[in-house]
Recover the amino acids of this structure.
C-alpha cells in the first residue's frame, strides 16, 4: 500500500490530526508550569516541591509509555491514541476540583498515565505510515503541534488565572482538549501499514533490550534526556526569576513569555526539512549551537533581552527535538514503537529529574546556577550527537 507523501490530501489530514494530538498532549501536560509561583505562595511550599506538579506527570508519562507501546502493537495505534486523548481531557477538567496540593499531585499523576498513549505511538505512526522523503516534514509538523499546545496551555492559563482563577483555567483547557480529541478521531487516516501482532511483556522486554544494545540509538536517548532536562529547567525557573524583585512581572505577562514557543513551531518544521537535505546530525548540532546561544543571552539583565534569549533557546530546542525524534524512527529498523517509547522515556525522565533538580540550583546559586546547569547539558548533548553520527556512518 502507498505511503503518505507531502502534497497529498492524506498528508494534510494526517498532519493536522497529529498536530491536534500534540496540542492536546502538551497543552495539558505543561499547563501548571506558569502556576508554580502561585502554588509556592498558596501552599507555602518550596520551588522544588511546586515543580512536582509537572514532574510527577512527566515521570508517569515516561514509564507508562512503555506499556502503551505494548498495547498499540496488539490493538492499534489510532485506537490507543484516541482513548488516551479523551481520558486525559477528562482528567484535566477533574484536576480543577482538587481540594489540596496533594490531591492535585494525584490528579496530575493520573494525567501522565493517560497521556502516555499519545507521544510514542504518534511517532511510531509517522515512522510506519509516511514516506521516507516526507518523514522529516511530518515529524516537524507533529512537533510543531507540541510547541503550539505548550504555548497555548501556558498562555491561556496565565491569562485566565489573572481574569478568574487557576481552576477556571484548567476547566477551559480540558474542555477545549475534548474538542480537539474528537477532531483527531475523525481526521486521522486509518493505518495502512500496521498489522496487529500478539505480544507479551517478555517479548517486549527483548525488543527494548535490543534497542538499548544499539550504541547510536542509546546516544540519541541520552540526548533526549539532556535536551528536555535543560528545556524544562529553563522554563520552570524563569517564572520565579521574573516574579521576584526587581522584575515583579504579573501572571498574565508570565504566560505571554511562552509566546516564544512560536519560534519552536517554525524551527521544528524548518529543521525537519533541513535534516532531509543536510542530514540529521548536522541539523541537530546546528540546533544545539542555537540553544547554547540563547542560554547565554538570558544572563543579561533587561527583561526584553531575556525574552529574546528564551526565543533563541526555544528555536534551537524544538529543532533539535524534531530531528532527533525522527532520526530514532529512521535508525530503528524494526520495533519502531518501542524505540520511540525509549526515546520519550529518556526525554520525560529528563523533564522530571533535571526539572526538579534545577530547583536546588535556583535556590542555591540563582539564575547563574540554572544557566550553568543548562549549558553543561547542551554541551554533553553535542558530544553525544557527534558520537551517534560517527556510529551511523559505520553502519552504512
Amino acid at each position: 500500500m502507498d505511503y503518505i507523501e507531502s502534497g497529498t490530501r492524506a498528508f494534510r489530514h494526517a498532519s493536522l490530526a497529529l498536530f491536534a494530538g500534540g496540542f492536546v498532549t502538551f497543552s495539558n501536560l505543561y499547563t501548571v508550569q506558569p502556576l508554580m509561583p502561585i502554588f509556592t505562595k498558596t501552599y507555602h511550599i518550596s520551588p522544588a516541591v511546586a515543580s512536582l506538579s509537572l514532574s510527577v506527570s512527566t515521570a508517569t508519562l515516561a514509564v507508562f509509555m512503555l506499556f502503551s507501546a505494548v498495547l498499540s502493537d496488539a490493538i492499534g495505534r489510532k485506537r490507543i491514541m484516541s482513548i488516551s486523548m479523551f481520558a486525559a481531557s477528562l482528567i484535566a477538567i477533574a484536576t480543577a476540583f482538587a481540594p489540596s496540593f496533594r490531591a492535585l499531585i494525584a490528579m496530575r499523576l493520573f494525567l501522565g498515565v493517560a497521556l502516555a498513549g499519545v507521544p510514542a505511538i504518534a511517532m511510531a505512526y509517522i515512522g510506519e505510515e509516511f514516506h521516507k522523503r516526507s518523514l522529516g516534514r511530518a515529524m516537524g509538523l507533529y512537533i510543531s503541534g507540541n510547541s503550539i499546545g505548550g504555548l497555548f496551555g501556558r498562555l491561556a492559563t496565565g491569562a485566565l488565572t489573572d481574569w478568574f482563577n487557576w481552576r477556571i483555567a484548567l476547566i477551559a483547557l480540558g474542555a477545549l482538549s475534548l474538542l480537539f480529541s474528537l477532531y483527531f478521531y475523525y481526521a486521522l487516516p486509518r493505518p495502512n501499514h500496521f498489522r496487529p501482532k500478539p505480544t507479551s511483556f517478555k517479548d517486549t522486554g527483548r525488543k527494548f533490550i535490543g534497542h538499548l544494545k544499539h550504541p547510536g540509538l542509546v546516544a540519541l536517548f541520552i540526548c533526549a534526556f539532556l535536551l528536555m532536562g535543560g528545556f524544562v529547567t529553563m522554563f520552570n525557573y524563569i517564572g520565579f526569576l521574573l516574579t521576584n524583585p526587581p522584575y515583579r512581572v504579573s501572571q498574565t505577562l508570565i504566560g505571554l513569555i511562552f509566546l516564544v514557543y512560536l519560534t519552536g513551531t517554525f524551527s521544528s518544521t524548518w529543521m525537519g526539512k533541513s535534516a532531509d537535505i543536510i542530514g540529521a546530525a548536522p541539523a541537530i548540532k546546528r540546533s544545539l549551537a542555537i540553544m547554547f546561544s540563547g542560554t547565554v543571552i538570558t544572563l543579561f539583565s533587561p527583561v526584553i533581552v531575556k525574552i529574546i534569549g528564551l526565543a533563541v533557546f526555544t528555536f534551537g530546542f524544538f529543532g533539535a527535538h524534531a530531528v532527533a525524534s525522527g532520526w530514532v524512527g529512521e535508525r530503528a529498523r524494526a520495533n519502531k514503537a518501542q524505540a520511540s517509547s525509549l526515546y520519550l522515556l529518556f526525554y520525560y525522565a529528563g523533564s522530571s529529574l533535571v526539572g526538579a533538580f534545577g530547583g536546588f540550583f535556583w535556590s542555591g546559586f540563582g539564575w547563574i546556577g540554572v544557566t550553568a546547569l543548562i549549558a553543561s547539558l547542551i554541551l554533553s548533548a553535542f558530544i553525544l550527537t557527534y558520537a551517534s553520527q560517527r556510529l551511523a556512518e559505520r553502519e552504512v
Summary: The first helix runs from residue 9 to 29. The chain has 16 helices and no strands.
